[in-house]
Amino acid sequence: MKKLVLHIGPHKTASTYIQKSLLENTAYLSSKGWTYPDDEILQYGHHPFVNWLLNGDYDQLEHYTERLKALNSNILLSSENFDRLNQQQIQKLHDVVNKCFEVHILYVYRRADEKLISSWSESIKHGNVQVWQDYALEHLLRPFVSSCLGDTGILLKYAKVFGKQYIAVVDYDIAKSDTQDLVELVLALYQIDDTGYCYNNQVINQAPNKKIIEVLRLLNRYHSKKTGTNAQSKRLRARFFKYLNNEAAVRKKIDNLPAWEDKVSIADTFVLNRLKANFHKEFDANIVNYDDSFVLPAKVFALPTVELQSDSDFIKKLYADVMSVEI
Question: pTM for the complete prediction?
Fold first, then answer.
């Protein structure tokens, strides 16, 4: 029976980089008996496939699975949105794909503190107005159902349905410390010869510095107060970054704003230590690049305080300038 590898993310673990790399090498993968389907693609990943499950469109799911089976090839599907499926939806996924393939689950595990802060930055780009302290507290108070801290819960749901023996975990931080390419690890895991594979180490979705993220948060908040809606948040974001690209002086002004940053280290906290211990208790044996000598170094993050106000003259002027940008 052919293999179906489901790369389920999660978010903020270089999923877009992996997807883009696989999509750019579809011809090479095909020559090795593997298909990374280039249909039903949204932003490099197979997010529509997950949407069918989320929306209960099971006929579409079954028809697409039959099309994949007809390719008579091993299949790689990737979407970080797989981490949003509940137990019943994962069971339905199993019922459909297990009839056609031997299914393997691929998961990338990343240090919780870095992922939490990266997730906050991403949320601001999509219109969130929370200061990072409130965002972090919301996740730390309910870590087991957190979208960015609930690694153990996500994988246990998949293990219950597909079997723990079919789950492979790549440790993002160990790979990074060894300067290993995540895609190279994936190809080796599934015994795909990479002799002619074209690696592209381009950084995808690199987060701007935290001062720029904080200014965008303040713009989001000012926009929300002024209009009563965040419906234009994506358009505001697009205008903001286009404006910064064309206005080097403004970018420099943001970079040189007076110090309004907290130096924060949250890795060595009870909650995150407990989450890490629980994950390793359950899935140590599944980590394909496991290194028991690896020690995660403490990391200090420079994060915004709440001193700059959304109704400051600087933000009001910047908002007017940004909203005048055509996109």
Answer: 0.91
